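Input chain follows. Return structure tokens only.
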Amino acid sequence: MPDGASPPRRDIGASRIAASDWKDLATRFQNVPNDASRADLTRTSCEGQEIDAQWRLVGGANGCEQLCMLAGAMLLKFTNIYADLPDDIKAQPNDIWRWLYFIKDNTWLPKRVLHGEGIGKGKRHLVLSESIEALAHNSARACIQCAAREL
């Protein structure tokens, strides 16, 4: 993809989507039982260059996985939301990870952040771990914000 170019938006065909779809998805997230779910992001860098990033859903997050996939796909379908998405989120090929990066970047979201440093083979390594607690609850909240942006 040329520098500065946005990835192509996925064609949704004849289906119609609206702000109410975000509200419906928020309700589905709210109905996930016992929200002890969280999403953990581990990022590893070497000499200031990120070399790996992995999301892991834990604590009963399986009930959220399909909803996160749907939410991540929906981010690319709504004009107002898509226009404001950072390019790295637009380019994320995994719908679940796209959603997780999107909600992680919300300033209202409290995060648990841990980091560690080490030196191996003469190079400085840094590992940063962030968690999105109460994944279903925070996803529902983000869905309502998305609905408001599309009204």
